[in-house]
Amino acid sequence: MHSKIHAIALDSSKCVGCTNCLKRCPTEAIRIKSGNSKIVKERCINCGQCIQACPRFARYGVTDQLTSLTNFKHKIALIDPVLYGQFHEQFKPSQILNSILSLGFDDFFEISRGADIITEFTKSFIANNTKFPIISSSCPTIVRLIQIRFPGLIDHILPIDSPVEISAHLARKSAMEKLNLVKSEIGVFYISPCPARIFSFQKPVGTKKSHISGTLSVKSIFLEASKNFNKSSEEQPNFYSSSKGIGWAKSGGQCKALGINDFLAVDGIQNVISVLEEIEYHKINDLTYVECHACTNGCIGGSLNMENSFVARNRMRKLIDQYSDCEVIVPNCSLEEYTFTEPLLPLQVAQLDDDISIAIKKMEQIEIELKALPNIDCGACGSPSCRALAEDIVLGYANKSDCIVILKNKINSTIKEDID
Ligand code: SF4
Ligand code: SF4
């Protein structure tokens, strides 16, 4: 059991053990122990549902501070297009870029450029592929979910780095060439809408090492950036006005950019799980591409964003419409450079024992424990379901008396005995 992982942490002074997060976690990764929420690291897919579910703001994403910028000679902000939906429409993208620069950055690089590159790569991948549907690899939560729960679908994942990684690589490379700097002198900071991205830089999949130096959350820079609008200089930075690239911020944007017909865009973790189950059982088999987002509405629904995701989605829609006629030049890159170099492997979460005969015995014990439980999945014991409690009891993490129904029955019979 773990109380904390790198991407999501708990302020235990705020947690009251209310079980809201436990009930929302899609992978049964949360337990309530001694009145505090704890995450079982191996089960967590970093979806951020627990952050959004907590009424006391006890859970938060672990990011860097703006002071970390001082560790580098040249600082680059990686701008996710979700940022354009966070501020009121009166602020133009170039003003938003300016206010981000004034937080202490020397330059910025927009991730919509990386998104446009991936769109081109994906088109050529689709043309040469035989295994369909291809599942987008841009949401790290979905990749981890497939590794844990749908290992049979790993071969369907698009084996190309995310737009964030490609953008970080290009931004660093360009700064090294232009300014004659070495790699360690350049800090590439991503302003993240979700904890899954933070985790994916700490533990990258498909590649050995991330190009990101650090992360800040949209929430953490929002206030400071808003103050800086008044300080914006006359000279506005160039905004990369690709409506297709910007569109990646919301669900359906990738499919629209690809210009294909046989696609499915799904958002919200439970919806994604249902669709992946149908793909696994071959109930859905006439699709070319599946774009999955763990968050409702796509990345604009990330738990580290500031704005209501429906309001932000509306702003993004207007912005995309405004720039729909703009011609942009997509940077020329080679697909090989950004294809996964490391294999994607299944992740084991619930190994009962290394010894198969002991594991079978434990499975039998779980069934016996489960029969004694009320099977109402109330969560009051601190485990998300009666089956999860039975498993926790067998693995030594919980006791039968954690079940309040069993405890109540026990108290009642003691009282009865006393009265008798
Ligand atoms: S939602 Fe979870 S983290 Fe928040 S107070 Fe309740 S138990 Fe604690
Ligand atoms: S981030 Fe998601 S998977 Fe991880 S503990 Fe929170 S709700 Fe569960």
Overall mean confidence score, pLDDT: 93
The run of helices and strands is EHEEHEEHEHEHHEHEHHHEHEHHHH
- Tell me the strand order in the biggest sheet: 6-5-8-9
The portion of residues forming beta strands comes to 5-15%
Number of helices: 15
Q: Supply the number of structural domains.
A: 3
CATH topology value of the largest domain: Rossmann fold
Structural class: alpha/beta
Structural features, described:
38% of the residues lie in helices and 11% in strands. The protein folds into 3 domains: 1-61, Alpha-Beta Plaits; 66-123 and 153-247 and 299-338, Rossmann fold (3-Layer(aba) Sandwich); 352-420, 3-methyladenine DNA Glycosylase II, Chain A, domain 3. The protein is an alpha/beta fold and 420 residues long. α11 links the parallel β10 and β11. It has helices at 20-24, 49-53, 93-101, 111-128, 140-149, 163-179, 195-202, 218-227, 243-247, 253-258, 269-280, 309-322, 356-372, 386-394, 404-419, and strands spanning 8-10, 30-33, 36-39, 59-61, 74-79, 107-110, 134-135, 186-192, 214-217, 263-267, 289-293. The chain has 15 helices and 11 strands. It starts with 7 loop residues before the first strand and ends with a helix. The protein is globular, with a radius of gyration of 24 Å. The longest helix has 18 residues, at 111-128. The strands form 4 sheets. A 4-stranded parallel sheet has the order 6-5-8-9, with helices on both faces. Mean pLDDT is 93; it is low at 1-5. Bound molecules: iron/sulfur cluster (2 copies). Residues 15-21, 32, 37, 53-54, 56, 58-59 line the site of one iron/sulfur cluster.
